[in-house]
Amino acid sequence: MFVCARAQEPDPADIASGLRLFRAKGNCQACHGWAADGRKMDSQMPDGANLRETQLDRKAIVVLIQCGRPGSGMPAYDRLAYADGRCYGMKSADLAKAGMNLTDPPATLAAREIELVADFLMAKVVGKGPMNRARCVEYWGSEVNECKELKE
Ligand code: HEC
Asked: Among 1, 136, 140, 142, which residue is least crowded by beta carbons within 10 Å?
């Protein structure tokens, strides 16, 4: 089962790419916080979920990033999310009819980029417990200011 092996142990370079996409292009951290624990960076943004405690598996996370969650603040990152029914079988017109708003993403992500973000989340965030000093240093690769305010 190569698929499973890969899902559990992605390439470290892929995880690093996923982290970059989470922070920069996808700007997930604006709403979810740099540690993805829901302590958002931008107070003007909607309150993102604590992804460290999410019950979703990798597959569900990929769908969430692709399709967002209409009616909440979670944007859809697939450029064609509601163009052809690929997301929950719905198109933009269906969302409008149901009165569900969809937040615009900071940027759209390609399918491969979405996979990389999911790899990063599974490896470093989901189920890893609250951010602490040691995890923070590992996350950033050094003792940055964000880590100094955390408990050991
Ligand atoms: C504009 C703000 C915003 C941005 C940007 C954003 N999110 Fe979200 N996200 C949310 C909100 C708000 C929720 C909670 C939705 C709800 O209440 O059901 C959420 C929920 C989620 C969930 C579901 C968690 C769960 O357990 O139900 C996942 C996974 C997720 N976001 C991942 C991401 C990733 C990865 C990115 C970047 C590619 C991202 N989000 C960018 C606001 C945002």
From this structure: 1
Report residues whose beta carbon is within 6 angstroms of any ligand 1 atom.
22, 26-28, 30-32, 45-49, 51, 54, 56, 61, 64-65, 69, 72-75, 77, 103, 106, 117
Query: Which domains can be identified in the chain, with CATH numbers?
Result: 11-148 (1.10.760.10)
pLDDT in tens, 41-74: 888 888 899 999 999 999 999 999 999 999 999 9
pTM (whole model) above 0.70: yes
CA distances from 29 to 32, 33, 41, 94, 152 (A): 5, 4, 6, 29, 23
Q: How many CB atoms lie within 10 A of CB 114?
A: 22
- Cα of 71 vs centre of ligand 1, distance in Å, is 12
